[in-house]
Structure to design on (227 residues):
């Protein structure tokens, strides 16, 4: 007959196994990066985000990066599109961070306010990412949008690689700046998933302790008593 302690040990070992399986099944985050040049219209960096305030950045190269969770349970959620935000009612949306770099200066999008719309899309014909955050009820405090037309693009949001194409639309807006962007390539990269070990370690240590105690207890019982 199993003792209470042995049953407890078995339960802990089973729980550890379940924890490891569950955490290892978590989807990795991905990064969608657009590269191109600033357009010939609306090109003054009034806010000085990318160098001297008021500088003309027309024709300068830029890189816009969006980190996203393709498994986020947003309003629109499938292999090729994940979109959500306040515009749909629920606040869940897939974009975790976003930035744009021009002339070695990086502007990181502020997520402290309301995200009105967060959207990532990828299929064989196009790729796009849109973020409207710090919404005040009328306007986006920050708006970063890139869309590129592709002739042979990624199969879905988790297909990694780099593709060149034709700019459809690109826009970066803040209270100070409005820059038109011309994306000409897009890269999708899988980011390293968090290891499940730290989350399960306390439970695992507890299981080892119980197993060790059982072994010592059985050894003690098996030792003959001197007459």
């Amino acid at each position: 007959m199993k003792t209470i302690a042995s049953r407890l040990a078995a339960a802990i070992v089973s729980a550890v196994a379940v924890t490891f399986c569950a955490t290892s099944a978590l989807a990795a985050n991905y990064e969608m990066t657009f590269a191109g040049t600033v357009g010939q219209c609306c090109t003054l960096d009034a806010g000085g985000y990318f160098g001297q305030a008021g500088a003309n950045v027309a024709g300068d190269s830029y890189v816009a990066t969006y980190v996203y969770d393709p498994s986020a349970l947003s309003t629109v959620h499938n292999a090729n599109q994940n979109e959500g935000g306040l515009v749909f009612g629920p606040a869940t949306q897939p974009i975790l961070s976003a930035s744009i770099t021009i002339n070695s200066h990086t502007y990181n999008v502020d997520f402290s306010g309301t995200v009105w719309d967060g959207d990532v899309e990828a299929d064989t014909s196009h790729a796009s990412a849109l973020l409207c955050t710090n919404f005040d009820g009328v306007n986006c405090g920050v708006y970063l949008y890139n869309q590129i037309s592709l002739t042979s693009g990624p199969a879905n949001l988790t297909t990694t690689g780099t593709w060149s194409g034709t700019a459809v639309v690109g826009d970066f807006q803040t209270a100070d700046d409005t820059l038109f962007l011309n994306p000409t390539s897009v890269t999708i990269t899988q980011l390293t998933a968090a290891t499940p070990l730290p989350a399960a370690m306390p439970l695992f240590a507890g299981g080892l302790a119980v197993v060790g105690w059982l072994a010592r207890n059985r050894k003690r019982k098996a030792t003959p008593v001197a007459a």
The longest strand covers residues 178-190. The chain has two domains: 4-21+195-221, 30-190. Residues 30-190 form one domain.
